[in-house]
Specification:
Layout: H1 2-23, H2 26-31, H3 39-58, H4 63-79, H5 81-93, H6 101-121
Helix pairs in contact: 1-3, 1-6, 3-4, 4-6, 5-6
């Protein structure tokens, strides 16, 4: 029950983020590190990845697809971490401090939780809730 509810919440979060990556990419382009090639294309592709991952999480026909969607969103969260860190560095350099530490530190610290949540919501792992000796599906 909790896993299902969190799956839907996570899917809604990723679907909204995917929509905004496609409909209003400017804020995402501003935080994309300089070393990323073709930033507009990468931001658009991240939006598509978020939308597909969200759809994969909540589809009911294939547990395997749900698992892959969870793994994909976990990998996605890991891959966008440099942009989140770059946003933090950009704001640190601003005279007004940008969004500040109260925004950036929890966001950066939550990234591993988001990675785990995608895996757990997608049923790619049962950790840490599995019984001793039970393995992930």
């Amino acid at each position: 029950m909790i896993r299902s509810a969190l799956r839907w919440i996570l899917a809604a979060f990723y679907a909204a983020a995917g929509y905004f990556h496609l409909a209003a990419p400017d804020p995402f382009l501003k935080i994309t590190p300089d070393w990323v090639p073709a930033p507009a294309t990468v931001v658009a592709l991240t939006g598509v990845a978020e939308l597909l991952g969200a759809a994969g999480l909540v589809q009911w026909r294939s547990k395997r697809l749900r698992r892959y969607a969870g793994m994909g969103l976990a990998l996605y969260a890991l891959c966008v971490w440099p942009a989140n860190f770059n946003h933090f560095l950009i704001d640190l350099a601003r005279p007004d401090g940008g969004l500040g530490l109260a925004y950036h530190l929890p966001r950066l610290a939550f990234q591993p939780v988001l990675i785990w949540l995608a895996m757990w919501a997608g049923e790619a792992t049962d950790w840490p809730f599995a019984r001793h000796g039970a393995s992930a599906k």
